Amino acid sequence: MEAIVKTDFHFPGQVSKYTGKVRDVYDIDGKYLVMVVSDRISAFDVILPEGIPYKGQILNQIASKFLDAVSDILPNWKIASPDPMVTIGHRCEPFKVEMVIRGYLSGHAWREYKAGKRTICGVEMPDGMVENQKFPEPIITPTSKAAAGHDEDISKEQIIASGLASREDYEKIEEYTRAIYRRGSEIAAQRGLILVDSKYEFGKKDGQIFLMDEIHTPDSSRYFYADGYEERLARGEKQKQLSKEFVREWLMANGFQGQTGQKVPEMTPEIVAGITDRYIELYENITGEKFVRLPDTAGSDKDSILKRIGENVTACLKTL
């Protein structure tokens, strides 16, 4: 299948389009958002030159399942998923922060810790920890939501002082962040997985806080296999994981970390196919379900896929 890396729809009532790193978001009448999850892939806040077939479908379907699974905790933006690559939902006014919650010392937090830092986003981290060790309690390490470029670590007090959220709202989304992470961790445990860390985005609609965007996908979360976790930790070995970290590791091994002047290594068809396979593995392990590739009747060329998306979205919008 060809990767879908660009869309240019004109839906009924459309007033604007926003192109993110992975998602193309269409504003309908200022009331609804049509989120088309493309096959683009980003790492280190850089969009990589090749798309990954089926990645958009995988991310959208995982997020859709998990939004449904936490809908009793707080309202979320999702109304319907009329196509494997699309979610339609309520337009909310977003808080310009990403709520990152970490149950384990991994990824960015570990890189900071290894460099000697013991405070991240105003949160203290205990001395004497090793990579991938579980924190005594999950820590919340927000980032500012950059319009372009790199998101930056930011503390709770900085968020409140800069007016990105009121103290009341921030403490509420912090509470929601912990509750969603607990639910995600429980579901992961049922699949033999550990939800290591995750990030969530929130907004407001009619004065009420809503959960937005995607949750618990391999782009927004990191998973370890629970089997053998303690043994690998004790031996100081890398954990067997399910996340996009394998893409970052491949890039770093080839001299790329998103810094000025660095060149993205060549993404050969073999590399691209391998990333698709890893994303399908992620889907099946995270959801416990067999991944079903896009309907055969759609064909595999871009035009037929885009036509199907357009028809499915237009039909759904007529029902709103």
From TrEMBL:
**Gene3D superfamilies for this protein:** ATP-grasp fold, B domain, Phosphorylase Kinase, domain 1
According to the entry, every stretch annotated as the SAICAR synthetase/ADE2 N-terminal domain falls at 18-256
Question: Which GO biological process annotations does it have?
Answer: 'de novo' IMP biosynthetic process
* SUPFAM superfamilies listed in its UniProt record: SAICAR synthase-like
Listed A to Z, the keywords are: ATP-binding, Ligase, Nucleotide-binding, Purine biosynthesis
What's the EC number here? Answer: 6.3.2.6
Pathway linked to the protein: Purine metabolism; IMP biosynthesis via de novo pathway; 5-amino-1-(5-phospho-D-ribosyl)imidazole-4-carboxamide from 5-amino-1-(5-phospho-D-ribosyl)imidazole-4-carboxylate: step 1/2
An annotated GO cellular component: cytoplasm
Reactions that this protein is recorded to catalyse: 5-amino-1-(5-phospho-D-ribosyl)imidazole-4-carboxylate + L-aspartate + ATP = (2S)-2-[5-amino-1-(5-phospho-beta-D-ribosyl)imidazole-4-carboxamido]succinate + ADP + phosphate + 2 H(+)
Q: Which family does it belong to?
A: Belongs to the SAICAR synthetase family.
Recorded protein name is: Phosphoribosylaminoimidazole-succinocarboxamide synthase
Q: Which organism is it from?
A: Candidatus Cryptobacteroides gallistercoris
Q: Which gene encodes it?
A: purC
